[in-house]
Amino acid sequence: MSAKELGTSAKNTWCPGCGNFAILNSVKTVLKSIQDDGTPIENVVLVSGIGCHAKIVDYINANSFYSIHGRATPVAEGIKLAGPELKVIGFAGDGDAYGEGIEHLVFAAKRNIDITMIIHNNRVYGLTTGQYTPTSPMGFMGRSTPKGTLEYPINPLELMLASGATFLARGFSHGLEQLKEIFKAAINHKGFSLVDILQVCVTFYNMYEYYDKRVYELKEHDPSNYSLALNKIREWNYHDEAPIALGVFYKKEKETFDGKFISAKKDINLDINANIDKVLADAS
Ligand SMILES: Cc1ncc(C[n+]2csc(CCOP(=O)(O)OP(=O)(O)O)c2C)c(N)n1
Ligand code: SF4
Ligand SMILES: [Mg+2]
């Protein structure tokens, strides 16, 4: 299926200029390239949460599951366990993934399940018209905090690294080529991968100028080194005026939960069969 055929007839309702368009276009290109590499589109499942970002699954002609706010991660995990051959890609917002669904992300990272989570981090609740999220900076003035928030943001990549994620990267909705590279690497990674995207919401929190001045591409960084990754991830805390690195911070090969789950399931089935044989033999 070509990138064009991966589109749908659903009317796109994102605001003109929204950073979600860059994510959509990059994902479609990467899905095309993954098919060229031998994965049929039938083996790809997209999962979304609830928010502006979530509409992405309406605009891609592939198997998808529109889940509920905060629950894209466990739904993606369930699909992976039921169909280990599938490539499962979850899309979630910052409110969605880093607020209501944060515990799911922590445990998915901890168990290193082989799914990819793409976080459209616009640092605001877009769909519900502009409330603050866990990554909004201190003092953010939104619909629910007209005088400014009184708390500092979390650094989601630091939390994910500490939780056990084995692939961590940051992209920006002004960097199409880099987004494609990062997405492909994340989807091909065997283990829990998370891409935090600075996805600009032009309507409720337009950060293009701010980011354009500060972002730079990670070069000569060794992503296999945990301490270096941690230092780079801590360089910008989603609040201060530091430079903002884009690229792959961390990548590690490690046994996956789904791999262990399949082996455990086989053993259990064997035990059950052995027990049934014994019961039948005893009864005869
Ligand atoms: C369980 C549940 N809680 C809250 C909501 C209300 N709600 C819908 S979208 C949304 C915020 C979306 O923000 P975010 O996840 O950052 O996505 P964005 O719209 O910015 O892409 C909220 C709070 C809901 N639909 N379901
Ligand atoms: S409200 Fe913001 S995130 Fe939602 S479609 Fe518009 S620009 Fe995009
Ligand atoms: Mg958001």
Automatic annotation (TrEMBL):
Q: Which UniProt keywords apply?
A: Iron, Iron-sulfur, Magnesium, Metal-binding, Oxidoreductase, Thiamine pyrophosphate
Name-wise, this protein is 2-oxoglutarate synthase
Entry-linked SUPFAM superfamilies: Thiamin diphosphate-binding fold (THDP-binding) (SSF52518)
Please list the cofactors this protein needs.
[4Fe-4S] cluster; Mg(2+); thiamine diphosphate
Gene3D superfamilies the UniProt entry points to: 3.40.50.970
Pfam families hit by this protein = PFO_beta_C, TPP_enzyme_C
GO biological process, any: cellular respiration
Q: Where is the Pyruvate ferredoxin oxidoreductase beta subunit C-terminal domain?
A: 201-261
Q: InterPro entries from the xrefs?
A: 2-oxoacid:Fd_oxidoreductase, OFOB, PFO_beta_C, THDP-binding, TPP_enzyme_TPP-bd
Q: Does the keyword Iron-sulfur apply?
A: yes
Q: Which positions fall inside the Thiamine pyrophosphate enzyme TPP-binding domain?
A: 50-197
PANTHER family assigned to the protein according to its UniProt record, in alphabetical order: 2-OXOGLUTARATE OXIDOREDUCTASE SUBUNIT KORB (PTHR48084:SF4), 2-OXOGLUTARATE OXIDOREDUCTASE SUBUNIT KORB-RELATED (PTHR48084)
Q: Which GO terms describe its molecular function?
A: iron-sulfur cluster binding; metal ion binding; oxidoreductase activity, acting on the aldehyde or oxo group of donors, iron-sulfur protein as acceptor; thiamine pyrophosphate binding
